[in-house]
Amino acid sequence: MSLSDSELVRRAREGDVESFAVLVRRHYPGCMRFAVRMLRERADAEEAVQDAFASAYRALARYQERDRFGTWLMQILVNRCRSLLRGRSRGPALVPLDPAEAPEPAAEPTASPDDSWSDEVQDALMRLRPALREAVLLHYVDGYPCEEIARLTGAGVSAVKMRVKRGREQLRTLLQERYDGRRMLEGDRA
Q1: Residue 34: how many CA atoms within 13 Å on its side-chain side?
Q2: Which of 91, 112, 121, 126 could form a disulfide with 117 if both were Cys (CB 3.0 to 4.6 A apart)?
């Protein structure tokens, strides 16, 4: 019989380290999927996820049981990813304008056929502003409703809805441009 997150948190608060390890194993794959897609660089994603779990462990005493543990943890992870992205913005550009200069895509943390994304989708996602990418990933990939995304990100519900809408529209436009460009190239070869 599997224990609920709430029961595992209660046990971890009482000093049961194995209970927290179960929480890590339970939530690690979803956290890595989000972080890899948000940050693109696997090393950065691993750092963000490890930092999020370490922060969560240190903050267990402040965890409110009215919240779902996964949502609370994701809020910590979102903030860590934002910090890493801010650090990048002071350095080189996140995504080169020339697609030929784009870095190799990071390997997915889990390799299931349902979860693999094409390079085109990942490249298009990385071209979205971080706030839009964050909203699209949380809503369409992780399945959070806009109200919960608002709690996770600290944005208003209407702002989240607009970010999801704009992110979806920009993603569609970017993918359509890429598809149209490929069709034109193939037409030139024929």
Answers
A1: 31
A2: 121
Distance of alpha carbon 11 from alpha carbon 46, whole angstroms: 26
Lowest mean pLDDT of 43-52, 77-86, 112-121, name the range: 112-121
Task: State the Cα–Cα distance between residues 159 and 134, nearest whole angstrom.
Answer: 13
Measured CA to CA, the distance from residue 69 to residue 92 in angstroms comes to 35
Give the other-Cβ count within 10 Å of 132's Cβ: 21
Q: Is the pTM of this model over 0.85?
A: no
Contacts of 111 (CB under 8 A, 6+ apart): none
**Which pair of structure tokens corresponds to residue 190?**
């024929």
Contact (CB, 8 A) for 133 and 112: no
- 3 state SS of 124: helix
Tokens of 99: 């697609």
